[in-house]
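Quick look at the format.
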Amino acid sequence: MKIIIASDHAGYDLKEKIISHFKDNFEFENYGPFSADSVDYPDFAHPVAEDVSSGKHEYGILICGTGNGIGMTANKHAGIRAALCWKPEIAALARQHNNANILVLPARFITEEDAFDVVKTFFSTHFEGGRHQRRVEKIDIH
């Protein structure tokens, strides 16, 4: 599975650790940044969201300090269901019930071990469909 991943400066270290930890499980395309120098999160969230929204990539991971700014930015794009997750149970429900396609992590509020568990859960959980499909179809404004 190929996953696109990006962060801001606050999420840079966790992004790099995730890429390293899961290098044998996933193929990552790193959208940056490529250092911990201060950057603006929308500059990294928009390209990831655009490529998931367009279907170029199926899934993405975005990381910033709280996860809020980068997730809010991604969710402005049609077809994006970016889910802020800090526990595996939340990641599982985001996939099962919301068909989330971008995982958002709060780098300043999650341990490295928990982040790894969340990533593993998010990408091993499938959308349940059924009654949830109807709800997911009502998310985008047409």
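Next, a different chain entirely:
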Amino acid sequence: MIKIAPSILAADPLNLERDVRKMADAGADWLHVDVMDAHFVPNLAFSPAVVRRLRQATSLPLDVHLMMDRPERYLDVFLDAGADLVTIHAEIAGDLTAMLDKIRRRGARAGLALKPGTGLSAAAPFLSHTDMVLTMTVEPGFGGQKLNAEVPDKIAELRKRGYTGEIEADGGIKEQNLPMLLEKGLSVAVMGTALFREQDPTEMIRRLHEMG
């Protein structure tokens, strides 16, 4: 069954705990937390303190996406805060294998993210060190963008190459385009605006789960 991971980037920052509990009660599977450093992407979002508080507020797995130039400096602090899965980007400099292996040694799952314009060749050397590949379906940094129509083929190619880990997509995912992504091999859908603006998220998540 498809896993639904609400992105707290779309939550009300003044009522974050309320919105997180609402998504948990609605049947969400994971909680997606975007961490931005204003260097790798032109935005700032969410500190380890937020992840620590989320860990206290919910039992949902915390899916922490580090959109950072130097994530190796912060792996321990986010893992200590309670991250269950930590994703770094294939586009950064540094020893990706060492970072991914460290995440796993700490008992969390390791993810590798690709921007829409980054080919699978950038991820290929590291796939055996990952538990998930995050295919960004929009340019990372801001919510509310439209899904890049070329990215779903990247998901299909990953499956064609035999990748059996989770494949997550983030950006512009809606109830209307999720079936197409599922056909390509998606297993985790990050949804922000579409879920947090939905009047009945419980019913919506039920429908999404029934898709596959």
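The chain is about 35% helix and 20% strand.

See the schema section for token definitions.
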